[in-house]
Structures are given as structure tokens and as C-alpha cells.
């Protein structure tokens, strides 16, 4: 059993029935060698070892506690050895706070099968080049999108790569089951993921610390949209000596199905380890996930929405009849709007600039618009998570949820 | 004669013959309603009311004293009235330091005739749409590159627009003479510019302050590459009640010709008003210009080079035999370079990141590369200007110039 020096997870409070919503929300302190994360927390994506359009000091100033990088992209470029030579991800990126890397599996399979998002939208990535060459007991073989070179990612190789990258929290390799496969495939895939998880744990136990010190290993609950498989996978996860758990896809074809599937996975997952929900992080997703016991979330959407001109905002402030979680500042109705992006926000963007100016920057094609909206959207998600933590602390979950979802 | 409340220019020291280079370099303090500029100084371009890829706080943290915006672009979008409604450029952009706007003329004529840079490169913009519709005594008529609408910019209209934009320093309208025209055209163009300058001064004297308070008007010395015309134009500029002077193009077809032309213009321009050199700002240009009495420079090149992966650096540090003022971090030789971008620089980018990481970001197409290199290149130019000021202060101009030009 790994010792996880420098790691701890303390659940400080659990929501009660009096919170107004029967739930398993919990307030926690996740300690890592690079600092403490107050949970529930949002993990911001630095896919290729950079939060898109924000410097690390801006990410931190916007209240962020933890970021993640994607092992798949970093295997392809610049390579984990190159990152290790530069002192690991923390030093290379100048981020001295907590950090997570995934196993690399998600991108192999989502780029290989077509992503979950594409499935939901009904376009299974027909025009996308297939990079997944094949899966067998040993691992997953894929083609580099950069130079066509062939790589095989094994559970051992994923852990070794994540050791070199050196993030605080690292993940076992799994097969991220696609949505359009049947129960039979899902069951076989889950069993393979469990064997890969066991090999990941064995490799983790064998190897030294990462390039930046001790690391904490998370297992992954799979099982697709099938209740019995999710429960079986959660039981397997509980049996493994990991520091934490993650819930992985496939999570279904709609938000409501996703919340159901998260509930299936969380059913048996009632120990004191932290639980991360992989790749999900809309505003409603956060409230639903926290209520089911999720401690951390990650999603590219806050920073991606920003690069398309979108500012996250409480629906009550969006002045639209259609409830949405963001406004698009390219819209002509903002041309003369002298108000801040979000009147409730005190981030650098909202404290200094108007919607009209952001509208101008977007129309003019200025990169600064992406930078300012990225700062705001990060600050918004961090403010949302602080509100979630307050709601658990004050045991007033339902009212807070209504306030944020409109 | 306008009073220019809140403005002053104090020449604190002049280089002597002992400086090692017969020159007219001078150390000054240019006071504006939004703060003091230590001169010689570099003015960074915020063309469309945004320094490309840098937030105002990053621009300031990199040591910048003053920025400029381009009236032509802001007339087309969002319009000077819209800027005035947002409180003027300073408030709209969240830049509370000194600011300059040009008259709009340069872009009308450079987009109309093909730019000076294109002429130097021998491609007179054959593929570029011509937006200049015509010039007459009244003003210049051009077509919006956004919607094809027709605008006429008159001297009065330029001053009115710059009043609404509200920068501290504003410019008279001139015709920016192209390079490929003959002496006769240049002489007639200069005479027209002088009549437009007089009308600009009259409008400036008539109107109220700008949207952000008092403003200081600069005249422009024209005359193309012809010594007698430059001298005549400088004499005219001296006769006008402006707060400062600018030297405008055409400046010639090569750097050496440009330095000669600047010398022609500066010959008679020996009063105590500040002098700005329009659109020029390479490292050698700065040393040559300062030696001829130029106090401020502007150029898009530091920020443009950054967006193409280039980091400004002293030639001695570039480790290349060919003397150049920057290194391109896309180059494979930086793939494993664990050193800072510029070992002499203490900017945020150099203090925190390696050349290898910047190389990775550029290869990965990450916007962060542009942001970090923009910060560095701004900091580099500000460090260069501080070195120029030190060289004048210590009267050791030639040695400092050798150090910076390699």
C-alpha cells in the first residue's frame, strides 16, 4: 500500500438533510505536496502545459487552486523526458500549486472513437482522422497527430510518463468506453480497465516519486451507463490502494443521464477518499455532482467559452429569457453596454473593462478579448465553487443552488 | 496660442562632445495630465485600443510609460463617439498613464499607397485593396475596410475625433507622402500638409479639452527625402504654437537613408519642444534617432515580433554570427534550451520560463507564447530606453551604443 507522504484528505463537514436537498455534498481539505485545495474545487485545464490565453499568475490571481495537464498531448510533444529535464511540469509551467495529470487514455479513446461531446451532438466525428490504431491486453496503440509516429500506451508507460511529468495527482490508465457501444462491450472494457488499474497501481508502488516529489494515485470508476457495471466498478475502485477515485466516461448522452450515471457510480463510493469527476464542469453539473458526493471537477469549457467571446454569468444577470450560463459579447446588444462583464465579479476583467469594450475587442479580432474573458471565466468558476463550499458550510444548499441556476 | 495646462517638457541634460559621439541626445521629463514620461522613451502601439496580447497591467509591469492608439482604426470601429461615451480611451482601455493618438492620416495613406515597409521590400502592395479614394484641399476620402462606407477625414475632423478619443498627446493631420513619388509631388504634398496643420491648430485652439482633459498638440515635419523641403517643413513646424513636433514619413528606402532624412528634419528643429519619430523603433533606429535629438519613438515591431515567436535580445546574447536584434524561439535549436529567454532580463517571462518551454508553446500553437514574448519584448524596449537615458546621464553614449548593437 503506497504511503502518499504529503497527501491527506479531511472531510470537514457533510451536508445534512436540513440543507434543503437530500445530498451527499461534503466540504473538504485536500492536501498535496504543492498546497491545499479547499473542496469542492474546480480544476482548470492546461492541456498542453498551458492554460490557454492566461499566464500562471493570472490563473492564480483569479482564485484558482489547481490545474491539470493532459499526458496524451505531452507524450506527443514535447515528451515526458523533456518535461522531466526541465524539472517537471510545475517548474516548466511556473505553477507552484497543486496539479493533476490524466493517464492519457481519455484522449486516445476520444480522438479514436469520436468524443462524447460529438456523440451528444449527433456527429460522431466522421471527418476527424482516427488516431486509435488498436487496443489489446497490453495497452492502446495510437498514431501521433503531429508526425504519424506510432505509440503504445500501457498502464506502466502511463504511470512512468506521469512520474516524469511530476503532477501531484495522477491517474490509472483506463479505456474510456464510448457511448455507442453495447453492454457487452462495456462490460469487457470495464474488466480490461480494472486489469489496467491493477497494473497501474503495481507500477506506481514499484516506481520512485515523480520528478517533483511524491504523487497521489487516483483510480477510475468505469461501467458506462449500466447501473450494475458502475456498482461493480466502484467496488473494484474501493478495493484498490489508491489515494482517490475518479469517475470516468461514458456518462451517457444527455445531462440528466449523466447525473444518473454519476449517481450509480457514487452509490457504493462512500469512503473518505476524494472523488474527481472527469471532464465535466458546467454550472449545473457542479451542483448536481457535488450533491452526489463529487469533490473536484475539470472541464475545458470555461476557458474554451472565453476564447469564443463568452462570459460565464449567473442566468439572472444575463437578461435573456432563455436560461443560459453565459453571454456572448460578440452580440450587437453589448455594443454600447457600459456595464462590467459581470456586475457580481471582482476579477481584473470585470473591475476594469466594460461589455462595450469587450465587444469592440472581439469585433476587432484582438487577442486581449480572449485573455480578459479567460480571466473572468476562471474567476467565475472559482466564485461558484466558493459559493458551493459556503452552501455546505451553512447547510443551505438548495437556496444557493437556486440562486446560481436561476 | 494654446496654454497646454498640465503639460511641460524639461530637458534635464544634453549629451556633450565627451560622450564619445557627436550628438544631440537629450534627457528629458515630459509631463502630461496622466503622468510623467522619462525621455528618451518608447511608445507601445495599442492600434485598435488594445496592446496586442497584453493586458494593461502587464504593459505597465513591463515598465511602459506611454502607449498610443490609431485614430484611423478607431474611426472605423467603434467610432470616436462610442469611445467618448465610454469615458475616453484611458477609461475604456483601463490605461491611466500617458497616451498618444495619431491623426489617422498615416493609415489612410499607407493603406492607400502601400506602406513604406512594402516599398522597402519592393512589393508595393499590389494585392492590397486600395482604400484611399482621393485627396483634395478639404481632406482625405477613404473607404472603410470593414463595411465599404466612405469617410472623409479633414484636419478639423481629425482633431475632433482625437478630442473624443481623449489621449494626452494628439497630432495634426498631414499627408504621409509615399516613397515612390517625385520631388514635385512631395513639395506640393508638404505645402498641403502645412495648410492642414494650420487648420488643425485652429481647430485645436477653438475646441474644448478632450474627453479626458487637456491635450497637447504635436505638429509634423514632412518633406520626404529632400533636404531643402525637410528644412522648410521644420521651419514651418517651429512657427506653429504646438506643444511638440513629430517627424513623419516618407523617410526613405533604407535604414541609412532614414537616418539621413531624420537628420535633415532635425537640423533646424532645435527648440525645447519634445520631438517624436513616427513609426520607427528598431534597436539601432533608437540609438541613431536619439543621437539626432529624437525624444520618443513608436513602432509595432516589438509586439509584432513577439506574436511571430521572436524575442528581442542583445546581439551578443543571440549566439548567432549574423547580427540580429531578436531570436526566433520556434527554431529547433531552442528545443532543449533550459535557459531564460534573455539572461539579462527580469521580466515575468524571463524570470519564470525557459526557452525550451516557449519553443514548446509555439510549436503547440498556444496563445500563451505570444503573451509571454509580448511581455518580454516590451520589457526589453523599456530596458533599452533606460540604458539610453543612463548613457546620456553618464555622458557615455558611444560605449553604451556599442554594448547594445554588438
List strands and helices in order, with pairings.
Two copies of one chain form a homodimer.
Chain A lengths: L7 E7 L11 E7 L2 E5 L1 E5 L10 H6 L4 E4 L1 H6 L3 H6 L3 H5 L5 E3 L3 H9 L2 H5 L11 E4 L4 E4 L6 E4 L1 H11 L3 E3 L11 H24 L9 E6 L5 H13 L4 E4 L7 H12 L8 E3 L5 H9 L4 E4 L1 H7 L2 E3 L13 E3 L19 H5 L2 H9 L3 H27 L3 H9 L1
Helix pairs in contact in A: 7-8, 8-9, 9-10, 11-15, 12-15, 14-15, 15-16
Note the total helix count of chain A: 16
Q: Could you tell me the CATH topology label of the largest domain in chain A.
A: TIM Barrel
Question: Overall 3D geometry of chain A?
Answer: globular
Largest Cβ-defined interface = A-B, 40 and 39 residues
Structural class of chain A: alpha/beta
Query: Strands of the biggest beta sheet of chain A: in what spatial order?
Result: 6-5-4-14-13-12-11-10
Largest sheet of chain A: 8 strands, parallel
Number of β-strand runs of chain A: 16
For this structure, the quaternary state is homodimer
Whole-angstrom Rg of chain A: 21 Å
Task: Point out poorly predicted stretches of chain A.
Answer: 116-127
In short:
The structure is a homodimer of 406-residue chains. Helix content of chain A is 40%, strand content 17%.
Amino acid at each position: 500500500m503506497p504511503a502518499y507522504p504529503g497527501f491527506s484528505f479531511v472531510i470537514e463537514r457533510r451536508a445534512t438533510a436540513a440543507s434543503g436537498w437530500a445530498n451527499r455534498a461534503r466540504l473538504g481539505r485536500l492536501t498535496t505536496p504543492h498546497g491545499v485545495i479547499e473542496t469542492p474545487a474546480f480544476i482548470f485545464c492546461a492541456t498542453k502545459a498551458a492554460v490557454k490565453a492566461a499566464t500562471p499568475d493570472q490563473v492564480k490571481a483569479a482564485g484558482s487552486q489547481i490545474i491539470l495537464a493532459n499526458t496524451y498531448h505531452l507524450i506527443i510533444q514535447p515528451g515526458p523526458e523533456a518535461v522531466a529535464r526541465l524539472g517537471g511540469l510545475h517548474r516548466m509551467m511556473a505553477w507552484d500549486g497543486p496539479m493533476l495529470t490524466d493517464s492519457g487514455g481519455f484522449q486516445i479513446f476520444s480522438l479514436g472513437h469520436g468524443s462524447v461531446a460529438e456523440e451528444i451532438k449527433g456527429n460522431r466525428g466522421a471527418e476527424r482522422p482516427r488516431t486509435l490504431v488498436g487496443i489489446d491486453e497490453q495497452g492502446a496503440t495510437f498514431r501521433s497527430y503531429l508526425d504519424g509516429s506510432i505509440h503504445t500506451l500501457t498502464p506502466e508507460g502511463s504511470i512512468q510518463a506521469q512520474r516524469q511529468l511530476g503532477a501531484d495527482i495522477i491517474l490509472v490508465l483506463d479505456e474510456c468506453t464510448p457511448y455507442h457501444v453495447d453492454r457487452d462491450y462495456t462490460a469487457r472494457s470495464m474488466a480490461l480497465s480494472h486489469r489496467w488499474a491493477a497494473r497501474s497501481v503495481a507500477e506506481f508502488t514499484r516506481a520512485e516519486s515523480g520528478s517533483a516529489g511524491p504523487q497521489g494515485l487516483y483510480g477510475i470508476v468505469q461501467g458506462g451507463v449500466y447501473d450494475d457495471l458502475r456498482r461493480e466498478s466502484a467496488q473494484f475502485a474501493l478495493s484498490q490502494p489508491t489515494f482517490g477515485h475518479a469517475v470516468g466516461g461514458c456518462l451517457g448522452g444527455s445531462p440528466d443521464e449523466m447525473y444518473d450515471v454519476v449517481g450509480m457510480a457514487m452509490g457504493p463510493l462512500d469512503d473518505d477518499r476524494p472523488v474527481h469527476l472527469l471532464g465535466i464542469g458546467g454550472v449545473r453539473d457542479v451542483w448536481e455532482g457535488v450533491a452526489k458526493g463529487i469533490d473536484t471537477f475539470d472541464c475545458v469549457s470555461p476557458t474554451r467559452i472565453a476564447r469564443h467571446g463568452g462570459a460565464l454569468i449567473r442566468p439572472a444577470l444575463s437578461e435573456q429569457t432563455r436560461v443560459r450560463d453565459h453571454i456572448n459579447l460578440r452580440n450587437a446588444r453589448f455594443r454600447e453596454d457600459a456595464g462590467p462583464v459581470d456586475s457580481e465579479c471582482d476579477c481584473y476583467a470585470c473591475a476594469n473593462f466594460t461589455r462595450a469594450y469587450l465587444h469592440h475587442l472581439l469585433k476587432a479580432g484582438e487577442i486581449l478579448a480572449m485573455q480578459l474573458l479567460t480571466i473572468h471565466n476562471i474567476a467565475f468558476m472559482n466564485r461558484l465553487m466558493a459559493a458551493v463550499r459556503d452552501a455546505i458550510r451553512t447547510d443551505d444548499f438548495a437556496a444557493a443552488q437556486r440562486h446560481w441556476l436561476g
